[in-house]
Design brief:
With 341 residues, this protein is an alpha/beta fold. It is built from ten helices and ten strands. It is globular, with a radius of gyration of 20 Å. Zinc ion binds next to helix 3.
């Protein structure tokens, strides 16, 4: 049994897993960042510190287990906000020392990559290696070719903004709250996605890389020109639908092209933006055209969560139980890029 800790950005999360079964997965989101229009790193660290201990107790209660039953602790050590990572990893070290447990450091992106394997309710939904995984969140947009739990490589990466970052920044231009991704998603459901033709950067670049900053600039100029006095509410949903469609088109086209090239049977989408209803729908229908199954984690595993960290930590620990007995891990902000305010 393993206790997992995630604190890389603005979610404090504690999970307990036993042989890949999630016994509890508590996620506490720091909603107060909304009023600043983005995550404020210093405030994020303080909030993690304030809540991490209580959340750990609650997670043990939910799972109906005690610390004595744990065999290891898994913790996110990179990438992320440095102060936020330090809170989680130092808390993990303290617990590990107190209970004499090995500590398994986990890369946050690795957690997202394998989140599609968590608690799938039918065997048909368990991804079969190799898979193509699209990790698409506020800090990352990348396509991975995943051979097994130890071997995967990046085959595509954003050159500038992450897709979630584009959603959030464009939402801000439209006068919407942070994080804007879920708000755009909701508005888009009643909007006309063909009303405005926003750019699909790098759609035909012949590789698996992305670029979203041009879309953001194009929306900024469009709003300045067409709606200098504010966007009327009746067109807001059409703008949202058109923006979402521009982002989803590129994500789907590149991911499906990669799946075809590498001959995989399964695509997994992961990360906060994989909660997007347009992306889930389009990825499923487009991949089905080529006999490829698309697997999306349930909503609680799309956003940052400790269950995904625990899942891969358990795999690593079971593979090599004896290599995790030292405590000299440090944290790192930038194995792949993350965004702050
Ligand atoms: O994975 P996550 O919780 O944190 C990071 O690692 O960044 O992802 C957060 C991102 C935010 O940019 C948020 O706007 C976006 O995921 N997001 C969405 C949706 N839900 C969350 N974007 C589009 N549609 C959604 N439904
Ligand atoms: Zn994340």
């Amino acid at each position: 049994m393993l206790l997992a800790i995630e604190s890389s950005c603005d979610e404090t999360s504690i999970a307990i897993l036993n042989n890949s079964v999630v016994l509890s997965n508590i996620i506490s989101t720091q909603y107060f960042h909304r009023k600043y229009g983005g995550v404020v790193p210093e405030l994020a660290s303080r909030a993690h510190l304030q809540h991490i201990s209580e959340l750990t107790k609650q997670s043990l209660v939910d799972a109906k287990v005690g610390m004595e039953e744990m065999e290891a602790i898994g913790v996110t050590t990179e990438p992320g906000l440095i102060g936020a990572l330090i809170v989680g990893s130092n808390f993990a070290k303290g617990l590990a020392l107190r209970y004499g447990l090995p500590l398994v450091p986990v890369n946050h992106i690795e957690g997202h990559i394998f989140s599609g394997f968590l608690m799938q309710d039918s065997a048909a939904k368990i991804p079969e290696f190799p898979v193509i995984t699209l990790v698409v969140s506020g800090g990352h947009t990348a396509i991975f070719l995943v051979e097994n739990f130890n071997t995967y490589k990046i085959i595509g990466l954003t050159k500038d903004d992450a897709a979630g970052e584009a959603f959030d920044k464009i939402a801000k231009l439209c006068g919407l709250e942070y994080p804007g991704g879920p708000i755009i998603d909701k508005l888009a459901q009643s909007g006309d996605s063909k009303r405005y033709d926003f750019p699909r950067s790098m759609l035909h670049s012949g590789d698996y890389d992305f670029s979203f900053s041009g879309l953001k600039t194009s929306v900024r100029y469009f709003i300045q020109k067409e709606f200098p006095n504010g966007i009327p509410t009746d067109v807001l949903s059409d703008i949202a639908a058109s923006v979402q469609s521009a982002i989803v088109d590129v994500l789907v086209a590149k991911t499906v092209a990669a799946a075809k090239e590498y001959g995989v049977k399964h695509i997994v989408i992961a990360g906060g933006v994989s909660a997007n209803s347009g992306l889930r729908k389009r990825m499923a229908s487009e991949s089905a055209r080529y006999g490829i199954a698309c697997i999306a984690p349930s909503m609680g595993y799309c956003m940052d969560n400790a269950a995904m960290i625990g899942y891969i930590a358990e795999k690593k620990f079971n593979d090599s139980p004896n290599i995790f007995n030292h405590f000299d891990y440090t944290v790192s902000a930038n194995a792949l890029r993350r965004r702050t305010k």
